[in-house]
Specification:
alpha+beta, 73 residues, 2 helices, four-stranded mixed β-sheet
Length: 73
């Protein structure tokens, strides 16, 4: 499921709490994309000390029961 929202990271944290799931950690691929020049460094932000894409966030259930939620601006 995808949501259009002003702050996708806040939205992902909210839905993760509602469903008891986790906010996905995309720090490794984000750091690699920036390091290899495939993503502008301005598109990267830090959320709780981890790199993230500024305009997208997701939460998912490690058990695969609850839906995966994806938020974007």
């Amino acid at each position: 499921m995808t949501f259009d929202c002003a702050d996708p990271h806040a939205q992902a944290r909210f839905w993760a709490q509602v469903f008891g799931t986790i906010v996905e950690d995309h720090s490794m691929p984000v750091d690699q994309l920036v390091a290899h020049g495939r993503m502008p460094s301005d598109d990267r932000i830090l959320i709780e000390g981890r790199s993230a894409v500024r305009e997208v966030a997701a939460c998912s259930d490690p058990a695969g029961i609850e839906p995966r939620l994806f938020g974007t601006t």
